[in-house]
Design goal:
This protein is mainly alpha-helical. The chain has four helices and no strands.
Amino acid sequence: MLDRLLGAPVQAVELGGLMREAWKVAEEMGWAKTYDANYVALARMLACRLVTLDARMRRATARTSASS
């Protein structure tokens, strides 16, 4: 499995503004901390789908996606 992970087509990307976007997400979601908001913000900035097993995060992001 490690060999598959190391061979995966992954590239490092520096995103300026991630912290600011995470704060924005945390405010939108009503979260007191930005830990989970970082994942949501990163997915938004990369315009990709966020896959999670975290039910709270899934519910919160579904609410904001439905209203967009």
